[in-house]
Every structure is written in structure tokens, then in C-alpha cells.
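User: Sequence in, structure out. Go.
Assistant: Echoing your sequence, followed by the C-alpha cells.
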Amino acid sequence: MVNAWYMDDSSADQKLEHHLNPPEFISIKDLYKNCGVIYYQLDADNYEAEGKLEKLKKIKGYNYEDWVHLSPDKLSDYEEKLKMFYKEHLHSDEEVRFFLDGSGYFDVRDKDDKWVRIQSEKGDLLILPAGIYHRFTLDTNNYAKVIRLFAGEPCWKAHFRPSEEHPARQKYREQLEKGFLECPV
């Protein structure tokens, strides 16, 4: 089961947990309600037989996927790419990641613009809505193997903050104001 918490403002190593003192956790339900982030737990060792991923792909129209190994020995320019992933940005499309192995952190901004850190581990599938400000880093294990899913042509373009005029950001803010009341899947 995924853990999520509000982050401190420390400039210490991005791969550390960055809990507030005392820690302030956020439930999966509130993560959706306050940020629009959808979470699923899948069996990473048997996801094909389990069928949940295939069902989700059909419902959401995810028709393209690729696999990424994030580690110093598997990813060229590892340190530079990790710095780039950690720069606050948004995308025009949902960001969908399924962790087959390893672990890392997705940081997202909540409705009050506070950072929420989402610990992502083997079996976790996260869907970040289009237009949400976010960033990603590995944790101190320095390894993750993930499947990235896309609906339509894959788009990896990051729009760095500030991007308030971007159509995906405007649509996301409208949804935030209305509220994420019921998980769509």
C-alpha cells in the first residue's frame, strides 16, 4: 500500500523522505480528492495473469507503453536525468507509471500548493492528472524499473513552472475548484 505525506522545506538530498516534524500523512482517498492522483496496487510479478493492468489500459485508452530502468548503471547520463526529472513541471497528458521493481518518490502539489511526497514501490501504479505540477526522484536505493503508459502518441514534453496559461493547467485548476469527488476508474 502506498504511503504519502506532506514534505518539509529542507534542501537536503532529494532522495531522503523529507517528512514534516511530526510527520503528516495523507490518505489515498485524500490524495485523489486534493490532487486528483489515482493509485492502484497490482501484483508486479503476475500482473499479466492478474488482468488489472489490461483492464485499466482498455478503460483509459492506454495504447502505448515502454519500460524504463532507472539506475546509475542502466540509464545514460543518470545524474543529469535525475536532476531534470526533479525540476517542477507539468504535462499535457496524464503521467502513468507502474513500478515493476525498485522504488522512488513522486512529489505533487496539492490544492493549496503544498508538496505531497508519494512513495512508490514495486506493485504501485500511479496516474497523475494532466496539468498537475509534479517532480520525480529515486530514493536512496537508486533503482526503479517502471512501465510508462500513454493514451495515443507518447508525449514526454515537460512544461516547467510557471505554466499557468497552459491549457492542461487551466483545465486541472478548474477540476480542482470543482473537486475530485469520485474516482473515475
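User: And one key feature?
Assistant: DSSP finds five helices and ten strands in the chain.
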